[in-house]
Amino acid sequence: MKNIQVGIIGGAGYTAGELIRLLLNHPNTELNFVYSTSNAGNKLSYVHQDLVGATELTFTDTVNPDVDVVFLCLGHGNSVRFLKENTLSETTKIIDLGNDFRLTADRNFNGKTFVYGLPELNKHAIEKARYIANPGCFATAIQLGVLPLAYAGLLKNDVHVNAVTGATGAGTSLSSTTHFTWRDNNVSVYKAFTHQHLGEINQSVNQLQTDFKSDILFIPNRGNFSRGIFATLYTDFEGTLEEAQKLYESFYEAAKFTFISQENLHLKQVVNTNKCLIHLHKYQGKILITSIIDNLLKGASGQAVQNMNLMFGLEETTGLHLKASYF
Amino acid sequence: MKNIQVGIIGGAGYTAGELIRLLLNHPNTELNFVYSTSNAGNKLSYVHQDLVGATELTFTDTVNPDVDVVFLCLGHGNSVRFLKENTLSETTKIIDLGNDFRLTADRNFNGKTFVYGLPELNKHAIEKARYIANPGCFATAIQLGVLPLAYAGLLKNDVHVNAVTGATGAGTSLSSTTHFTWRDNNVSVYKAFTHQHLGEINQSVNQLQTDFKSDILFIPNRGNFSRGIFATLYTDFEGTLEEAQKLYESFYEAAKFTFISQENLHLKQVVNTNKCLIHLHKYQGKILITSIIDNLLKGASGQAVQNMNLMFGLEETTGLHLKASYF
Amino acid sequence: MKNIQVGIIGGAGYTAGELIRLLLNHPNTELNFVYSTSNAGNKLSYVHQDLVGATELTFTDTVNPDVDVVFLCLGHGNSVRFLKENTLSETTKIIDLGNDFRLTADRNFNGKTFVYGLPELNKHAIEKARYIANPGCFATAIQLGVLPLAYAGLLKNDVHVNAVTGATGAGTSLSSTTHFTWRDNNVSVYKAFTHQHLGEINQSVNQLQTDFKSDILFIPNRGNFSRGIFATLYTDFEGTLEEAQKLYESFYEAAKFTFISQENLHLKQVVNTNKCLIHLHKYQGKILITSIIDNLLKGASGQAVQNMNLMFGLEETTGLHLKASYF
Amino acid sequence: MKNIQVGIIGGAGYTAGELIRLLLNHPNTELNFVYSTSNAGNKLSYVHQDLVGATELTFTDTVNPDVDVVFLCLGHGNSVRFLKENTLSETTKIIDLGNDFRLTADRNFNGKTFVYGLPELNKHAIEKARYIANPGCFATAIQLGVLPLAYAGLLKNDVHVNAVTGATGAGTSLSSTTHFTWRDNNVSVYKAFTHQHLGEINQSVNQLQTDFKSDILFIPNRGNFSRGIFATLYTDFEGTLEEAQKLYESFYEAAKFTFISQENLHLKQVVNTNKCLIHLHKYQGKILITSIIDNLLKGASGQAVQNMNLMFGLEETTGLHLKASYF
User: Which of B182, B192, B221 sits opposite A283 (nearest CB)?
Assistant: First the structure.
């Protein structure tokens, strides 16, 4: 197959860096351009410094509108602006890693219809889509934890979610809470009950269980590590642990990156992979679900490549057999 | 005042190390002996290596039964065994840092009656006590977060608690989950819903609000840091944020180490201090309480010294004006 | 090409874990068996927990003597013992990751001759070798930093080396210096001037510059991170920076994984890659060389796969295009 | 004794924060004012957030010129500017934590003569001084490691120094190398051979050994921890280890915070203390000296208080019996 020509918009951030790392090793893609006005002319390796020796490519401030697919790695709100100010060819596919098109109310933009790109939920629609709204990182971990219950219509009450994210979740900009001396050996909570990813989570839950009217109560935390999301969810569940496991195994039977673990989980099992691992635990009338991902891979750039593979008819896992860093 | 003669039993662990550090600088105590059979004859600084230059004292395998107070820093279950095998003088006070005497059912032992040593709850009883059961670390953080509501009889429903502890919470013994390569940049959950501190927490809540029949649902986590506990709790609360703040301010009016913060909290505000900081946040019908402590100080050895001060009629804060490490 | 049948001996350690991760994604190999007596019957993912979902293979306590290549991932000294107690087929190649066969005095064993497997030094010998002694981790970083100068005969005086290694360098066994509470935010020095890798370093330097009679003065440090080696070396150098850069660029012209960076380096540029990055700095009569690797990849398992590729006539980089974890 | 009235200039940085923490617990001082134009009116605890519950003091933009002592915690170069723009009373003592007055060429300023405030070197001069130039953090660790040899006239050749500092050494300002995602699990080198502290180090060495003409070759590193400096130094030494130990013990006999350890050192032995620990090791013709301090205490604010104690005739250790954080 002829190589897919790829453009990346907003090439200096963390998600763009991960995309570049993935696509340089992807057997069916060619990095046609990486757009970053602030770094135009600099080598990619000047910003993404692990790329020394891996590529001589430079950033550009010119968009090639005729590539096969464009990834938008822009701050939230900036994808809309970019698409207003730039015209891409009719056949260019778009995968937006921001949150501009994730909610139903935002999906139709300028004649384009965006499909919510969670393969475990919308695989067939993604295969036929031209425009993808890639899910948020917390949203991915939490949805993959809760969707099987919604699918079975078993969400009867509030879902209590606590999740902690690595510092890359906050982006490359400098702030007091990303300063090393602040964050080293520290923990804190933010946006309790109101994190912006709740919108897409509730939307997907309702897509599967239309009568779900309870709350998803979500406490997000900042962790003192760089990569990954560790989420725990619990809710009422009357069935047995075995029934829950069967339900989850069945729901994820065709999933290429989401697996049920019989053992307790710890975050580093998924760091530097595109996997989501899920563990189930039953205690009295509650089920506890642990769901873990790498926020930059399954939570962002890895899932974006997974979506690209589906859109172009490639094997879903192409270029995503990553060696975990583990330690 | 003549110096209080102190004995420490089980001197090689983390809580004993903190006690030694505290008591070496306490103006009214003298370390009479530090008992550790495995280290007898070694300098304290051989095990607690920050003490180089601070003391020439050595561990002993002989118990002096006539000291004024003995701190038991033994693994859970071993305090009972120690007191069966060793006889202390009638006037020797005992502060047990283990969990052998915390529950009502365990409080009377061999003619001794232990008082649960949470000063914010039982100050007057502690002042008159001869035997103290020092609270657990998670138990301290969670109780200080929830007791004002119980006091006001306002716990109407389940309390949802998530807390993360530093690696010192697991003690000095080596295990796979305390190995650096495992824990570095990692997170995990353990003993979900069944942590042993729930017993003492429920007991104190019921002491203040006898009609509390709901559940305290507690998810403990292992964090990738050494010291501290960061706990978030939420439950239904119909009042306003101001009412909650007034209630907490009032409940802790006389407390010497527990303070209400108007700002969001982060763990390092309390590391290397004996403080508990609490922050309140209201969202719709819920109140979110953040409660943070240093697990080795307010969660163990600092609180033990606080109890000693009260038992001996000293100013409660003596020897506990600690410089935070903060970074 | 028919898949190379691979056996791994000592499958539960860090280097074996990395080998398994690499070989599961290598296009030309098949994991024939992973030998670990203590884990026989367990899934690989029971020990290497990132492999959940990636393989169902189990450990075995039976050695298949007819595989194409065996990797020995044993504690130092145990490779000799293993080869005495087990007979492999005449055609089975062996790559030893321990230090049993690295020194000239040890290279001939039981009719086998081991080649020192540093591709930048011995590429042609490796291509023809049946038995490889894979270099040590510190030895790799330091040699790649100093060999170009030796090659040019320019080592005129002592070489001063300081290097810091991640905790995986100490292996999986538990010890006080690998306990999280000890190592978190800590640094220490060990084996100053006497580290066991000095033998192989001096041997390679003398292979290129036979008149080198000065000392390599090496201070190894334990760092509070999991992966990687950061080494600085300096020595007298009369030439210009440009001459040094030209020398290094030329020496590594054919190298597939060793690159000269014009910018200052930081360790994470190479973490989770098989690369060695080198930076040169001139100050008055000294040259300062920074050399960085991932201790488990270029310093162990990645280099072992690189050697395997060379021995089997594969492209040297096969299976080693790894996505850096970077953060 | 009447309390010493203290003013702090530049109150929002790390060293000012440490000073405030120390002085709030110092029995003989009263914080008269903390000057910070950018934070005027804010509580101290708004910036130094561990102070919640410890003080209600606020920052001011007014300097009280009549306090007993002023600490200057300003960026390098700004102390001169501050003293030009502000007039303090004739009797107000000054302790400058910057590097404006450390070198002999800079010591006389505007009628004031600054004494270099390293108590182990200049105790008597400090006791009589009105103006103190507080040493740099690296400079303190390295001088305390090397001065006994200089005192004995035994520095015969180059001194090779490698030291790593925590992120607080870089100050509170945000930069790429203080971003958590960059620094977490990372190491790097900077200012090799040219660090600005070499000036004061060489000056003190020459004060004790006037014929020292060799080089102090210093490689500074950025470590992935918050507090502390870990320095190793080696040089030629013909005597025995015992002779070296006797020399160091003798040189530091009267020192209150500098101790010789018979055991190997690790950084956390001094974190959150005002101590310097030194370990000596002999190998062939070299002596290896390990010297460790907390960069914010013995390397800055703790030493400043030590100097204040000496200047005001207080016991040198007053207010500096700090509980180590250790873990």
Answer: B192
